[in-house]
Design goal:
about 30% strand, seven-stranded mixed beta sheet, 2 domains, Rossmann fold, globular
C-alpha cells in the first residue's frame, strides 16, 4: 500500500493502480503509463519497474539538503529515461546529459524524454577513455555490461570519458553525476578523475557482483577527497566533495 501511495504522487489513480498491479503480477510486454500527464513507455517484467520503484517510490536519487537548483546533471546509464524524468521533475532548470549505450534502452530513452526541455541523449557508454568496446549480455540481473579492452565479442559501441563529456558540452561544473553503468565504474575510478574537482555530488551504484573490486576502486579514489556519504538502497551518495590537499 505504501508503494501504491508513492505512485499516486507522480501519476493519477488509474495509472497508480496499473503500475502497482504490474509490479505485483510481473506482466511481460510493453506498456505505456503516464507521468504527470506525459506518456512513458516501459517494458513490463523487465528492470524498468525495479528502476521506477527505486527512483520514485524509494526516492534513491534524492539530494535534498545538499544540492540546490543544480544547473548540470550527467546521467550515466540512463536506461529508459526514468532518472532523467525524475531529475527534470525536481530540477526543471537543469540541463541533463543522458548516456545509454544499449540500443533498445536508448530507443526508450528517446521516446520517454522527447518532450523534456534541455535533456540531451547520447547513444554512448561512459568509460575511462574514448574508445570502441563491446556490449555483452551478462545475466538476468544485468541485461548488458561493457566488456574490458580484451573482450572482442558482442555489440560494438562507442564509449567516452567524463573529461570528453565536459569538454564537448562546455560544462563548467557537474552538479550531479549519476552512474549506474554495470561495472564500468571500476575503469572510470581507476583513472585520474580530475573532473572530481568540479563535481558537487555523485549518485552511484557499484557492481562488484559483475566485476570484482568496483567498490574498492571507488573508495580508493574517493579517499583523496573529503565528502559526506549517504546510502539509499543500492545507491551511494557522495556530497560536498573536496580534494584533500
Amino acid at each position: 500500500m505504501k508503494r501504491f501511495i508513492k505512485y499516486l504522487l507522480f501519476t493519477n489513480l488509474f495509472y497508480a493502480f496499473y503500475l502497482y498491479l504490474i509490479h505485483k503480477m510481473k506482466f511481460v510486454g510493453y506498456s505505456v503509463s503516464y507521468f504527470k500527464g506525459r506518456p512513458i513507455k516501459l517494458r513490463s517484467g523487465k528492470s524498468e519497474y525495479l528502476i521506477l520503484n527505486q527512483i520514485f517510490a524509494d526516492d534513491q536519487y534524492s539530494v535534498d539538503n545538499y544540492v540546490n537548483d543544480p544547473k548540470t546533471i550527467i546521467d550515466g546509464g540512463a536506461n529508459c529515461g526514468l532518472s532523467a524524468i525524475y531529475f527534470k521533475n525536481n530540477f526543471p532548470n537543469a540541463v541533463i546529459y543522458c548516456f545509454e549505450p544499449q540500443i533498445d534502452n536508448y530507443a526508450l530513452l528517446q521516446f520517454n524524454t522527447k518532450k523534456l526541455k534541455d535533456v540531451h541523449n547520447f547513444n554512448l557508454g561512459i568509460w575511462s577513455e574514448d574508445t570502441i568496446l563491446y556490449l555483452n549480455h551478462k545475466s538476468a540481473a544485468a541485461d548488458f555490461y561493457i566488456g574490458d579492452k580484451n573482450v572482442s565479442e558482442g555489440v560494438k559501441i562507442d564509449v567516452v570519458s567524463i573529461d570528453t563529456i565536459i569538454k564537448q558540452n562546455n560544462i563548467d561544473r557537474i552538479n550531479i553525476l549519476k552512474l549506474d553503468i554495470e561495472g564500468a565504474e571500476k575503469e572510470i575510478f581507476s583513472s585520474e578523475c580530475n573532473w572530481l574537482d568540479k563535481t558537487d555530488c555523485i549518485l552511484i551504484e557499484v557492481h562488484d557482483r559483475f566485476k570484482k573490486d568496483c567498490a574498492k576502486t571507488l573508495f580508493n579514489k574517493m579517499s583523496e577527497y573529503d565528502y559526506d556519504l549517504e546510502v539509499s538502497g543500492e545507491t551511494l551518495k557522495f556530497f560536498n566533495i573536496n580534494r584533500i590537499n
